[in-house]
Amino acid sequence: MTAPRPAPGATPTTALGRDLLRPLKLFALFFRIGALNELQYRANLAVQLFQSGIALATGLAVLGLVFGQTTNLGGWTQSELLAVMGVHILMGGLIQTAIQPNMERLMTDVRQGTLDFILTKPEDAQVMISVREFRIWQAVDIIVGAIVLAIAVAQLDTGLGLGAALIFAGTLILGAVMIYCVWLLLTTAAFWIVRMDELHELFEGIYQSGRWPVTIYPGWLRISLTFLVPIAFAVTVPAEALTSRLTIDTLALAAAFAVGLFLVTRWFWRIGLRNYSGASS
């Protein structure tokens, strides 16, 4: 679907600015609606706090056991691995808050033929299917991850300057874009494969490998977790930015791969739409 034409008299610059703001306005609108819906079930917050607390305690216990036997793991110190854990928790919270809910809803719409309601809207279909659903209580993990990161940074000898903080934020955004693209690529396969209900469990199993830096894995697995499922770019690279391990070459590779993956995802999504047979077919 194409965006509406600019209003008569609008300059190209003004029209472009409005087009760029439309996704942000849609995001804000659907986030507000999702928050209001979730606030009806406040008991879910207690459940999420309990689950996040158990997961954090388990992760810290495993980390403690590892460093009870050694002083570093693949060259990473305990404080540096705590930073990896923080990024892993934070990114996982983002996935479960915004990316996974929207992809699961897309699979349901494709299977039931209800994606027609999105395709008839005067907005870009990919933007619409990406911002419709939010589970705000899952954002507890984003907060927990940020707290773990703050503790890790306080323990690092190098500290965190403004430049490093900006690079870290940039790598987080690049990682989130890549994870979103992988989810959408897999979900778009629902246009051809009817049953994909276990997709989230498959991804969750792979994502757990991000608890540790990919540099400690064998070469073949490291490559797979970098380019097939970009866990390395989403978790290890931001952690490297925090721990002064990130090189300019790796940063450039992450940016190039994110742009390329997004373009491929956009192309594949359009192919999927052409093969969609909805309720109106």
What descriptors fit this protein?
mainly alpha
Report the mean per-residue pLDDT as an integer: 86
What number of domains?
A: 1
The gyration radius over C-alpha positions equals 20 Å
Beta-strand residue percentage:
under 5%
* SS element count, helices: 11
- In whole angstroms, the N-to-C terminal distance is 17 Å
Describe the structure.
- With 281 residues, the chain is an all-alpha fold.
- 70% of the residues lie in helices and 0% in strands.
- Helix 3 packs antiparallel against helix 10.
- The protein contains eleven helices and no strands.
- The radius of gyration is 20 Å and the shape is globular.
- It has one domain (20-274).
Question: Brief description of this entry?
Answer:
The chain has 281 residues and is mainly α. It is built from 11 helices and no strands. 32% of the residues are buried.
Secondary-structure blueprint:
Elements: H1 12-38, H2 43-67, H3 78-112, H4 116-119, H5 125-130, H6 140-155, H7 162-188, H8 199-207, H9 219-228, H10 231-242, H11 248-274
